[in-house]
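Bug #2210: token dump truncated for DUF4136 domain-containing protein?
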Amino acid sequence: MKNVFKSFIVIIFSIFLFEPVVAQVSSDYDKEADFTTYKTYSFGGWQDDSGKIINDIDKKRIKESLQAEFASRGMTYKASDADVIVTLFFVIDNKTSTTAYTNFNGGMGMGYGYGRGYYRPGWGWGMGYATTTYSENDYQVGTFVIDIYDTSSKKLVWQGVSIKTINTNANKRAKTIPKGIRKLFKKYPVSPIK
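Reproduced locally. Full output below:
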């Protein structure tokens, strides 16, 4: 029963440690900006060559997800002279997590008793040992930043930041990219039109 409990604990901790972390999302915006006046947007590209980090398929997923979010808020794409310019920034951090699991093993024992009655003095010896196993897991954390600038004032009016463990499975990324951008835009000052 002890081994079953130990195995259960190890499985639970493994799920929490190695399951991709839910995206941490934050945003900030200029409280003086009137977001209801923004009807058109254009893409200003990737800042600091961060577009070289992402493959073209994921870039397309990001752009389509952004277009869907803007369209749901009544905004249309305009190649030039748009109300706002959207710039994107992406950076990857390589991380390593270390997990330690200690296995305690019971010992051997021997005893001997002598005498009569209820209390019998005796002697004995015992031994036990523990082993600790370490495992390392390499993973990547991506930070995705969306900056939206007012074209006329050239000022930053909204910034959204999403930080998440990068999933190497392309099929999962096809689902998590739109989901992550949707989550990020929940904090946008203008709600989707119903």
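Output looks complete on our side. The CA atoms of residues 115 and 121 lie 7 Å apart. Marking as cannot-reproduce; reopen if the truncation happens again.
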